[in-house]
Amino acid sequence: MRPIAALVSAAGLLSAALIVPASAQQTPLKIGVLSDFSSVYSDIGGQGNVEATRMAIDDFGGRMFGEPISMVSADVLNKPDVASTIARKWWETEGVDMIIDLPTSATALAVMELSKQYEKIMIVTDAASSDITGKSCSPYTAHWTYDTYANAHTVGSAIVKNGGDTWFFLTADYVFGHSVERDTSDVVKAAGGKVLGSVKHPLNTADFSSFLLQAQASKAKIIGLANGGGDTINAIKQAGEFGIVAGGQNLAAIVMFISDVHSLGLKLAQGLIITEAYYWDLNDKTRAFGKRFMERVKRMPTMNQAATYSATLHYLKAVQAAGTKDTKTVMAKMRELPVKDAFTDNGILREDGRMVHSMYLFQVKKPEESKGPWDYYKLLAEVPADQAFRPLKDGGCPLVK
């Protein structure tokens, strides 16, 4: 009997040795930042998003399951095929667990398809199309910062209420621009206004003269800029040269960032009504984060950069709470945990992938109102999440029952 007992005892010891904590079985965590480092959206995200991701990793403690957290980054050149090639390589051969940023809606939608194929998490912090959590939603994608629906409703409705009831759009000719024009047009019409027309321009346009002349000829009270980044900056600068505002028409920058205002200067940007999800001078938490970011990057964070910090930190907290990197388990934990950080203190991740939170309506200060660099905004209103973002039932996301 003794040999049998000894064998049973040995087998028990062997079984116990094989039962190890889930966290001990995990490979090191790796995050990939897919951004625009060289083109029209580099100021909005770019290297600032890389630094924001690094700040979140550092603030978390730098390690997960006893191993260092690592990060890689790449320039997508704002091309969906380039973004897909990099994402495939990262997920197939380089052990990347989560991809964040995605600078354009076209790149985001392309990588979302791969995310479904590989069942890997991606968090969109730069691209804006509301289709990301609408008809194209994915169980593995979170949309963090803002979207064309939220911006259209906060800015568009405010402008129409103040008499800007006829619109003409200058629209970037790809998914993002089309989404901005569509969503803002819906708001204008619902508020009793009229859309008199639109003109499409290529991404990264240097010369807006022909497009601005068409907008000027429309006699619309509001010229809606359905573009972003460098395109918005160039359009506003050239509109000033054409005397469009001096002639009685006004510009509506539907998607605009503090980096754009900084590039333009207050003399050109003053009076613009814009919406943002974050501003460094809102409260003590936003100011503390803004100061830390400024020390590293030498400029204040855009809402996308603050959101990239927030999304990375939330993801890391969810992985830790889940005790695993398993995609479905982590996504469930991300939806369960509230989002409270320097970006927002009232965020919730919905089942369609939309992270909802307050948005803010600002007016750009006059030069004489600013107390110094980056003191650019006057707060007009805080718009609660349920008013800013599209209702869950209206998005057409097939994940929503």
UniProtKB/TrEMBL annotation:
Q: Which SUPFAM superfamilies match?
A: Periplasmic binding protein-like I (SSF53822)
Tell me where on the tree of life, at the top rank, the source sits: Bacteria
A Pfam family of this chain: Peripla_BP_6
Q: What does the UniProt keyword field contain? A: Amino-acid transport, Signal, Transport
- Domain Leucine-binding protein per the UniProt entry, residue ranges: 28-365
- Signal sequence: where? 1-24
Q: Which spans are transmembrane here?
A: none
A Gene Ontology biological process noted in the UniProt record is: amino acid transport
Which family does the record assign? Belongs to the leucine-binding protein family.
Q: What is this protein called?
A: Amino acid/amide ABC transporter substrate-binding protein (HAAT family)
Q: Which organism is it from?
A: Bradyrhizobium stylosanthis
**What is this organism's lineage?**
Bacteria, Pseudomonadati, Pseudomonadota, Alphaproteobacteria, Hyphomicrobiales
